[in-house]
Amino acid sequence: MQAWRVHTPGEPREAMRLEEVPEPVPGEGEVKLRVLAANVNFPDALLVRGQYQIRPPLPFTPGVEICGETEDGRRVIANPSLPHGGFAEYVTAPARALLPAPDTLDDAEAAALHIGYQTGWFGLHRRARLQAGETLLVHAAAGGVGSAAVQLGKAAGATVIGVVGGKAKARTAEELGCDLVIDRTSEDLVARVKEFTAGRGADVVYDPVGGDAYTASAKCVAFEGRIVVVGFASGTIPAPALNHALVKNYSVLGLHWGLYAIKEPASIGACHAELTRLAAEGAIKPLVSERVPLAGAADAVQRLADGTTTGRLVVVPALTRTPAPAPAPDGGAR
Q: Nearest 5°: CA angle at 1, between 26 and 323?
C-alpha cells in the first residue's frame, strides 16, 4: 500500500515521503480499516516537526483522524494507532474507540467531525458552560477548529464574534454565520468587541491560537467571563497575569480533550451522539474547503502549518490527480 512516512522530523514538504509499505497488522484489540478520508489537523504538523507531546517511533505515518471502512463494510470514525497514521491507504485503530460515521455526512465531512468538534463541544459546554444568549468570541474562526466552535456556539444559542486574519477568511466567517467578524489585521479587536457588546465584553473566549490572541482576549473578556485555552497555533504560549484575572474576575480554563478518553471514556460516545444529532438537524457541518488526493497530503499539511488555509483540508486516497491535457498534435490550440 501507499503511505506517507517521516524518517527525520522537519517541515512537512521536506520530511514527508510517499512510500510503498506493507499493510499494517492489527494488534490485540485493534482492527484494520481502509481509509476513506483523513482530516488534516494541526497536531499532524507538530508530529512531523517533532514538536508534539507524543513522539511516535521513526519512521511513522502522520494523520490522527479518519473516516474508514471496516472489513465488514461499516463506515466509522477513528483515531489511527500511531505509528500507522491516516495518510495511507490502510490503518489500524482501537476497536473499542470506533464511532459510527453519521449518514448525513460524506466521508470527508465525517473525517473532520471528530477531534475539532469534540474539542469544541467539551470546551464550550463542559469547561465554559456556555449559555444561550451569551456572547462567544472565537479566534481563528475560519479555520478547522474555529469553524467548529462557531457552529457549536450558534447551535447553543450564543451570539458569536469571529476573529480572523484577512479578507478571504473574513468572508468565510461571515458565511459560517458569525454575528460579528473582526479582521485582526486591520481592526482593533478589543475596541470592536467592547463596542459590539456595549462595553461588557465576551462571556466566553475560545482560543486555539495563544500569543497576542490571548493578550487581547484578557482585555475584552466580560465580568465572570471564561477564556478557554485550546492550543497555541501562533507558536507562542502566553503567560497569564493572574493578578489581572483576579481584578477583572474572569476564569482561564485549560482544555486537553484527549484526557476525556482516559478519565471518562463514556463521555466521548455521548458527545458523538450529540454531534450526530446536530449534524442530522443541519446545525453543524464540517467546513471542508478542499479534498486532496493522497499524493497531495504533504503539501496540505504544510499549508495548514503555514496558516494559509480555511476550513478543513481532507485527504481522500481514492482521489487521483487529473492529468494535464496533452498538447494538440499540431502544437496549436484545440
A: 145
Q: H-type helices in the chain, by residue range? A: 12-15, 42-49, 107-111, 115-121, 144-155, 167-176, 189-196, 212-220, 242-248, 258-263, 265-281, 297-306
Q: Over the stretch 169-186, which tens digit does the pLDDT of each residue have?
A: 999 999 999 999 999 999
Largest CA distance in the chain: 78
**CA 118, 123, 126 angle in degrees (round to 5)?**
95
Residues 278-323: tens digit of each pLDDT: 999 999 999 999 999 999 999 999 999 998 899 999 999 998 644 3
Instruction: List residues bridging with 30 in a β-sheet.
Output: 94
What gap in Å lies between CA 216 and CA 244, rounded to an integer?
Answer: 13
Residue at 331: amino acid letter: G
Whole-model pTM: value is: 0.91
Query: Read out DSSP for 94-129?
Result: EGGG-EEPPTTS-HHHHHTTSHHHHHHHIIIIIIS-
What is the residue-wise DSSP string for 170-192? Answer: HHHHHHHT-SEEEETTTS-HHHH
At 156, is the secondary structure helix, strand, or coil?
A: coil
3-state helix, strand, coil in the chain (%, to 5): 35, 25, 40
Amino acid at 257: W
- How does pLDDT run across 219-252, given as a tens digit for each residue? 999 999 999 999 888 888 888 889 999 999 999 9
Using CA atoms, how far apart are residues 79 and 92, in angstroms rounded to an integer? 9
DSSP letter at 294 equals G
Three cell numbers at 100?
459510527
Quickly tell me which residue has 468572508 as its cell.
171
